[in-house]
Specification:
Elements (H helix, E strand, L loop, with lengths): L2 H12 L4 E6 L5 E4 L9 H12 L3 E5 L2 E8 L3 E6 L3 H12 L2 E6 L15 E3 L3 H8 L5 E5 L4 H12 L5 E4 L3 H13 L4 H4 L2 E2 L11 H18 L6
Parallel strand pairs: 5-6, 5-8, 6-7, 8-9, 9-10
Antiparallel strand pairs: 1-2, 1-4, 3-4
Helix pairs in contact: 3-8, 4-5
Length: 231
């Protein structure tokens, strides 16, 4: 790779942009692809997008020969709003799955290092914390407090971003009330439809650990496949 391309790749990684280095296996020609930022589509762009989604380098055979697609994804991040019992189980599961985890809760008696060993804690209000954390396409946001004063500002920030996953704890009734509040804030049905609520796959989970498993399963399915349609 020439120096100019290497410099551009380094800048893209600093800016946390999803980038693929596509190298023609016969000519050695390399180019940088930004599949999720591309205005149009092509078989090569689609293959690069799928490689990024799967976090796996791959080969693509096109009309002009074979390209090796080397991926450069920003780190996965999860922002959990609410330092509750489910969060105590979810945070280490997400960390073990490769996520950089932040638990956000201004209630310091909840968000303590004793309850969340080794997890980054943020005691600011969710809207303030998320404004600085700047969640992106490689981020997941999960709200767990059942408190509209905490959950709603986080959901508003999430819906205004391009995070790949938004989940909100609560019953169907709670979810309906949340929908009404967000509609009142000016969000459309399509925007609100990005929220996975009640959060997690419907596996009959009851305990905090089981609910955390259902959440991680749903997050993983959407990250890797884009949906949970066949689960």
């Amino acid at each position: 790779m020439d120096f100019k391309l290497l410099k551009e790749l380094n800048a893209a990684r600093i800016d946390k942009r999803q980038v693929v280095v596509a190298t023609h296996e016969e000519t050695g020609e390399s180019t940088l692809l930004y599949p999720f930022e591309a205005a149009g589509s092509s078989p090569l762009i689609d293959a690069a997008k799928e490689a990024l989604r799967r976090d796996k380098p791959t080969e693509f055979e096109g009309d002009d020969g074979v390209w090796f697609l080397n991926i450069h994804n920003p780190p996965l991040r999860m922002m959990i709003v609410g330092a509750v019992h489910i969060a105590q189980k979810l945070a280490p599961m997400a960390a073990a799955s490769g996520y950089d985890v932040t638990v956000i809760d201004p209630r310091r008696s909840f968000g303590s290092a004793f309850r969340f060993p080794g997890i980054h804690l943020d005691d600011r209000w969710p809207d303030e914390a998320l404004a600085e954390l700047a969640p992106d396409r490689r981020s997941a946001i999960v709200t767990l407090t059942h408190d509209a004063k905490l959950d709603d500002p986080a959901l508003e920030a999430a819906l205004s971003s391009d995070v790949f996953y938004i989940g909100a704890l609560g019953s169907t009734r709670t979810n309906a009330k949340r929908h009404q509040r967000l509609t009142g804030k000016g969000f459309t049905d399509d925007q609100i439809g990005r929220i996975n609520g009640p959060v997690g796959l419907n596996i009959g989970a009851q305990s905090p650990a089981e609910i955390a498993i259902s959440i991680m399963a749903e997050v993983t399915a959407i990250l890797r496949k884009g949906n949970t349609d066949d689960i």
